[in-house]
Amino acid sequence: MSGHSKWANIKNKKAKTDAVKGKIFTKLGRELAVAAKGNPDPYTNSKLADAIAKAKAANMPNDNIKRSIAKASGELSGVNYENLTYEGYGIGGSAVIVKTLTDNKNRTGGDVRHIFDKCGGNLGTTGSVSYMFENKGVIVIERTVELDEDTMMELVLESGAEDVITEEDSYEIRTAPSDFSAVRKFFEEKNYEFLEAGVMMIPNDKVTLSAEQLVSFNKMLDMFDDNDDVQEVYHNVDLPETDDEE
């Protein structure tokens, strides 16, 4: 789940291995349970509704989603998770933002620092790289013959979204973070399926790494993905399109 990409390679996105899917579903499950804590009704809890849309975009089965929400009133009822964000530099001066959901910030902070150090980077202070990113709501919908550019532009204007970026096989709709829930609901009510849905950190500019640096950088992304406390990783590296950035 690391980084923001062009979503151009839909076939690869749909063909994730079971192991990768399981890892993603575990992280999404925790996010769902935390969002549902105190109010398990997505109709009155927009944070939970957003989390459900994100899970569905990742092809998480409905049964898994329901079980994760049920955990909020069961095994997680006495656990307090914190959303913590870490900023740092990867190899080659790349900018990296790590978003975590943890019940032990000392453990998570140590793990994040270790991963940065091991892969040629270093953990920074709050604000050290976030100024290089914009916080945006992002909804990605597959581009089809029926859903042409003119139709999508009309929908975007009607929905209140800020912009749409047209790719070869997808549309990337961008919103202000505060408008994301309303725009998501607009497209859901029109029965569009999402390839991606969430509030994300979008880099203002991208950096290019050497082939050798990319090996270390991808190793760092894999280590973050393997860490149970890490929910999302955003960065400003221009990864080759053949690589699966998520």
Secondary structure blueprint with pairings:
Blueprint lengths: L9 H5 L3 H19 L9 H12 L4 H10 L10 E8 L5 E8 L2 H14 L3 E2 L9 E10 L6 H11 L3 E4 L3 E6 L4 H10 L6 E8 L7 H16 L3 E6 L11
Antiparallel strand pairs: 1-2, 1-3, 2-8, 4-6, 4-7, 5-6
Helix pairs in contact: 2-3, 2-4
Description of the molecule:
The protein has 246 residues and is of the alpha+beta class. Helix content is 39%, strand content 21%. It has helices spanning 10-14, 18-36, 46-57, 62-71, 105-118, 149-159, 180-189, 211-226, and strands at 82-89, 95-102, 122-123, 133-142, 163-166, 170-175, 196-203, 230-235. The strands form 2 sheets. The chain has a 4-stranded antiparallel sheet. A hairpin with a 3-residue loop joins β5 (163-166) and β6 (170-175). The longest helix has 19 residues, at 18-36. The radius of gyration is 18 Å and the shape is globular. The N and C termini lie close together (4 Å). Residues 1-13 have low confidence and may be disordered.
